[in-house]
Structure formats: structure tokens, C-alpha cells
Predict the structure.
Amino acid sequence: MNKRKEGELDIKIVLLGKAYAGKTCLVQRYVNQMFTDTPYQNTIGAAYASARVKVNGKTVILNIWDTAGSERYQSMSRIYYRGAKAAILCFDLTDAESFDKARYWSGELERNEPDCLIYLCGTKKDMVDIEPGSRATPLSQVQSLARDLRSELYETSSTTGEKVNEVFMKIATDFVDNLKNLPIEKPRTDSFRVSHPTDGQRRGWCSSC
């Protein structure tokens, strides 16, 4: 696990989607720069990974939670997306049901984590490139959901690595940019009272503490 050093930033990222939608492969490709075609085992609960990236001179630690897509773990996923600043909604480009599941998770996030930025991610693009007819959901429909969510849309391949790094770098860049754009709070002039205390009294105290 990457430990944050002084001056570094960190962000919690959660991956949500149907089982076998390619979430774990996406993380493995990004973090370890590898893809394996060995038989896939369902994630139980959630798996954690992290990575350090540089953005505009800032070091950002990406704390990535890969949640289980199975229905029986669905309620547990709410634990892992709590407090997330970014969510990658993964769906298999060749599986229409997985796109429906991405819609479901978008609604969950909008209700429970309205400040969480959403990134829509279609996986297994290499399969669509080989067989265009295997695309299960029309691109126009996917783009429409992305517009509704004010979301970035990426079509990725964990097999070839296409667009995988771009997803995570975009998240890190947006996070740093959003921090820069936050308004700077002006100090309250009435927050402090300076007194000349007698013994046993505090010297200067905050009225809001």
C-alpha cells in the first residue's frame, strides 16, 4: 500500500459494474501493466490497489477499490463507494445487460454520493474491433448516458492496454484541477478574541471551537 508523504494528495476511486464486466482486468492492466487470460475468479467484497502519479507537479496517490459485481455482494459495494471522489462505471461493450447495470450504479451514486465524479468505461474494445457486430449497446445510447451524467466516456481494452492509462490520468488531473478551483475561505475576523488572561485562563481562544 502506498503511504502518503507530506505534500502528497490522495483520492479514493471505486470501480462499479456487473460481474465479468472487466473491472479487475482494468485495474491489473493499469497498476501492473499486465493482462492475463487465465480463468477469472469473481472478486469477493472488494479488492484494493494503489498507484502514484504526477499531475502538474503534484503527486497524487490513487486509492483504487475494485468492487464485486455479483448481486449477492451488491449491498457491500455501498460501503466501498462511500466517500469516493471518482467512480469508474464499467460495462462490457459486448454485453447489453452490463450497460443496464452501469445505469443502475449511476443512479445509486447520484442519490448517495452526488459529489462523486463519474467516468463511464466500456471494456473489451479489442473484441469489438475484431467483430464489430459484437457491440451490444449502440454507441449513441452510451454517449447519451455519458451526457446525462456529465461524464467522460472511454472505450478500453485491458488486453491491448488501449485507453486504460488515460482513464486514471484523467481522474487524477480532474482531481487536482478541482482542488485548484475550490474557493479560498477568508478568515473570520470575529473568530478569535485576544485577552489578557489571569492565571489558569487560556491565552487567545477560538470562539468556534
